Amino acid sequence: MMASPVSVYNSSVLDAHISSPSRESLKMELLADVTLLPGEERIIDKDIIYICPFNGAIQGKVLITNYRVYFKSSDADVAVTLDVPLGAISRVEKMGGASSRGENSYGLDITCKDMRNLRFALKQEGHSRRDIFELLFKYAFPISHGLPLFAYVTQEKYEENGWSVYRPVEELRRQGLPNNKWRITFINKNYELCDTYPTVLAVPFKSKEEDLRRVASFRSRSRIPVLSWIHRENQAVIARCSQPLVGMSGKRNKDDERYLDLIRDANDTAKLTIYDARPNVNAVANKATGGGYEGDEYHNAELVFLDIQNIHVMRESLKKLKDIVYPTVEESHWLSSLESTHWLEHIKLVLSGAIQVADKVSGGNSVVVHCSDGWDRTAQLTSLAMLMLDSHYRTLKGLQVLIEKEWVSFGHKFASRIGHGDKNHADQDRSPIFVQFMDCVWQMTKQFPTAFEFNERLLLTILDHLYSCRFGTFLYNCESARDHNALRQKTVSLWSLVNSKTDVYLNPFYTPESGRVLYPVASMRHLELWVTYYIRWNPRIQQQQQSPVEQRYLELLALRDEYIKKLEELELSDSSAPPSARLANSGSSANTSSSSASSPTQQQQYTHLHTPF
Amino acid sequence: MEFSEHIKTANVEDVVLQQPLHTSIKGTLCITGHHLLFSDREEESCQQVLLLLRNIDAVEKSSVENLLNYFSLFPNAGHSNRATESSGTIVIKCKDLRVLQLDIPGMEQCLNIAQSIETLSCLNCVAEMYPFFYRPSNASAQDPWGLSTPERHYTEMEELHERWRLSTVNQDYSVCTSYPPAVIVPKAIGDDALKKVAKFRQGGRFPVLCYYHKKNGTVILRGSQPLTGANRKRCLEDELLLQIVIGDSDRGYIIDTRSGQQAQQARMMGGGFESKSCYSNWKRLHRHMERGKTLQESLIKLVEACGDKSPNMDRWLSKLENSKWLSHVQTAMSTAGLLAECVERDGHSVLVHGSEGTDSTLLISTLAQLILDPSCRTLEGFLKLLEREFVQAGHPFQQRCSHSAFSHARIQQECPVFLLLLDCVWQLWRQFPLALGFSEALLLRLATEAYASDYGTFLCNSDMERCALQVKDKTHCLFRALLQPSEREQYTNPLYEPNELAIWPSVHPQSLQLWRGYFLRWTQQTRHLELVQEEIRNMVIEWGKMALSC
Question: Mutate which of A325, A334, A446, A589 to test chain B, going by most B C-beta atoms within 10 A?
């Protein structure tokens, strides 16, 4: 092969700029000028060599605070900046020893939770890495060292209070509850019925409190079937729970059977559909550990298995994906390598499971969704089905409510799945279930570019702070633990950040259509790898045009708002003229976005966004 | 010429048509010399389908007696005498990848229809093709044909005039049958020398200028391979021409779209390459680009995978990979990127050729211009670029596009080079959503028109052939039609923002995507996305108007 005169199309170096995940912090020109967050403190800084997988060894300075690892190259020609929240770190290891040979063989090897690794090299003399290693280890895993998470240290203040975004009773009211078939119960107000459930639950009107207790005894971790969402018109519901404790002997529980029949009876459907997210064989295997699934004794119910794999399979699948995209992308057999990770196949199964749930419910049939414990796959399925069914959840605030409700309040074990501040990187409880959910949301936004009020940047921001520990939103496994640790009093919500600056998260093309059910296509042919998330650290993938597009988005938003204002003026001057459909739609979207800038008028907003089904 | 001799049955009633994205309809089928016309009998919802027979790639008939099916679809259809008759089914696979099914009552009629379609869709006499009969109401034959001419192009490019001239040495197509009558060459080279160079280049395609980079004065030339042969023949005029091109610059690059080995082998067949010893200031870069049959087979595999109806889609990504289509896209884009880099970043002139210089050569010279030159990125600029670099430059459309992916005929000269170009342009468009002034709809329209068209633009293989058939006098021009006010709006990109910089595409496999808008065009999901994109366009246009009015 002949040598080529130039670089890019001959696969050598591109000028790299690695952008930081916390883009909202100010630009940092020099290490001395790093803008720290209120409450963030400098721990140590040091001359170091960053072994960049794309540009090779780069001299520079590293700064470690109680929130982040920050690196800046000293050579102006190779402008590389790294800004990684400590929360994103899953593992810190020493690389090489004092006697290791070879250049840059002595240093630190850092594995991150967000699809990248970092390597730093130091001089091989005088235990130069000892202090930095120990401090990094300590502050990256504060929980393991008896230190508070950064969310409890930060002094950040925002105009908006994100903790007020989700109020369980208000959300149920928005859905039209309580009514004569469903009631709201506070039986769990002290987390006595179920310690991983929220305090406010919606249950069949005809069920008595003692029924709930008896049902709880027959459901894994007492996670009884409760209402997640109700269809305004046909009154069909999505209920969620954990597996029944059938066990090897095939135990029955009349109360549980009766209770499920009450759910079915609430809107008079002939058959209740129970979606068990697991593959059939796994459900059977669970009997050995006391679990299982609903058998024929549930007379008016049908059981459907959705074939979604467990947390361990998902973790391994994403690990394989990381292997083929970081640091270098497996290029020669890209598509078949991607196929062999099965990541897209899992996405497909989750999406198609949610589609089945949504379809049943919009057809007027109530459904019950569970897996084993009902906090991973179940959360994925209910929240995605709700996203398909209810346009409210497709707004900027609505998505926040959906996450707060189906994930946070119903006890998706964020602390265990992510391992916040915990040094035990090999913990078998860790799994990218929430990432997978966000991927599914992204797939839907791709297929319905005008149906979502938020843009990709919101999804990226949420995922960045899933790990960062800067906000309280994703900390702890359940509400009882959050209450116990005074989370809402002592930390800031991620939604405070988002709602104080909504512009950058809005999709200018959003056109609200309240009544529409969105069914994404879950065929492999129409699914894509979320390249801008999974491969975003690769400078070759960073699409050169990304920032101009964002800029253009903002311009378009301004144009849109101008347009809406003009239309409103026209309307005022000629109020007899019937406004067009689009006009009415755009008008309401303008209200949502502008009201978030002023003081939150929740009540008003809910009535405004009422979803007529 | 009488088409009627091929039409034994012109009209059939009670035919059931099934087409993608529509429910089946029943109506009357009519075959004319150029069209298949289907019209629905229902008065209130009169639906018509008009299909150019030229668009049909394959006809498959099955004599399956699907009466049961037939009556279950239309329970009220006459039970009386039909029940005893058999019916036939014709599956029509189009070059635009649409698949239609016709259920025709009466075996004989069905066979007649199939026969007519098969014959009429394959007629290869250009002068009898539909463009010669097509008379759009909003155009007259006096309208000028085409968007520009080599003469106009040269006149407009004033910066060229100092060192380059317009040569009419090929005025009567005697020097090169596939070049237009006028081409741009170095001023210092006379027509006699050009004639000698032409003899030394395959098909007479001597190096001509196709792009001038204003920023640094470097140029892109294209031609065909030199006919050095096994005994390393030389042509001093050819060497001189290239030397004059680089002038006092220290070197130029030759991008050969064949591998080094292929170029060596070409010598055995009388072809060859520019050797280091004779062209000492030129550095050859070989980039192996697939061509001909390999490319056509790749398209066939891809379309097969896209049409796979089996519910088990497990192996979709592998099938996509095995078709190799995306790797052809990658090669084309990275070779074009290399070409653009030589010019823009390295600051040297480049000569591009493969063997004939009518396929991959044009593909990458076109793409490189799109990467480099902002004036090619507007709707009009892009159409002019295609006119110059594909139509006038002699891409043999007739041969390359006579069949597409469904045909059962043996592959002869067919090759989806133009489709590959459009796919690459779509990748650029996706990566730079603001930088190109035209829409995906334009690319889809061009992809369809190249294979079957009402217009004369893509007829014939060269200017010479078009001239002989008076294509410019007797047919209408597609490019002009696309720029009509009525059409124009749907082909512009409302997000377009002129950008003076080169747009460097990412060519890594994970940056390239299947062009779903084309290859999965007839699926519900793609249709839905098309509608949404249209909605977005309209929104942006609306806002823009409002902004202007205040």
Answer: A334
Q: What pLDDT band is residue A13 in, cutting at 50, 70 and 90? A: very low
SS3 B254: strand
Closest Cα in chain A, distance from residue B17 (Å):
26
CB-CB contact of B271 with B228 (8 Å): yes
Residues from chain B contacting residue A557 (CB–CB below 8 Å): none
Amino acid at position B57, single letter: D
Active-site residue, selected from the candidate residues A112, A194, A241, A371:
A371
Among A536, A556, A310, which residue's Cα sits nearest to residue A431?
Answer: A310
CB A494 within 8 A of CB A474: yes
Q: Would you tell me which residues 299-338 of chain A have a C-beta closer than 8 angstroms to some C-beta of chain B?
A: 325, 329, 331, 333-336, 338
**pLDDT tens-digit profile of B116-152?**
999 999 888 889 999 999 988 876 666 788 999 999 9
Q: What are the chain A neighbours of B542 within 8 Å (beta carbons)?
A: 563
pLDDT in tens, B161-175: 999 999 999 999 999
pLDDT tens digits for range B16-63: 999 988 888 899 999 998 999 999 876 666 778 999 999 999 999 876
d(CA B461, CA B179) in angstroms, rounded, equals 10
Distance CA B451, CA B440 (A): 18
Sheet holding B252-256, edge to edge: B208-212, B219-222, B350-353, B252-256, B282-286
Cβ-defined contact of A8 to B504 (cutoff 8 Å): yes
Model confidence pLDDT, tens digit, residues B64-117: 554 445 455 555 544 444 444 578 899 999 999 999 999 998 888 888 899 899
Question: Which has the closest alpha carbon to B376: B438, B453, B299, B431?
Answer: B438
Q: Where are the alpha helices (DSSP H) in B169-324?
A: 191-200, 236-246, 260-266, 292-307, 316-323
Alpha carbon distances (Å) from B367 to A458, A579, B150, B226, B294: 35, 46, 19, 24, 21
Please work out, in degrees rounded to the nearest 5, the angle formed at the alpha carbon of residue A158 by the alpha carbons of A154 and A161: 105
pLDDT in tens, B305-340: 998 877 666 689 999 999 999 999 999 999 999 999
- pTM listed for this prediction: 0.90
pLDDT digits (tens, 9 = 90+) for A564-606: 888 888 877 765 544 443 433 433 333 333 333 333 333 333 3
Residue of chain B whose alpha carbon sits nearest to that of A447: B529
Beta strands B25-31 and B11-18, pairing class: antiparallel
Residue B236 is given by DSSP the state H
ipTM of the complex: 0.89
Catalytic (active site) residue A440: no
CB within 8 Å: B504 and A325: no
Residue B463 has pLDDT above 70, yes or no: yes
Q: In chain A, what residues touch B547 (CB-CB under 8 Å)?
A: 559, 562-563
Q: Please list every residue in chain A whose beta carbon sits closer than 8 Å to the beta carbon of residue B540.
A: 556, 559
Across A197-213, b (16+ Cβ under 10 Å) vs e yields bbbbbbbbebbeeebbe
Q: How far apart are CA A262 and CA A256, in angstroms?
A: 10
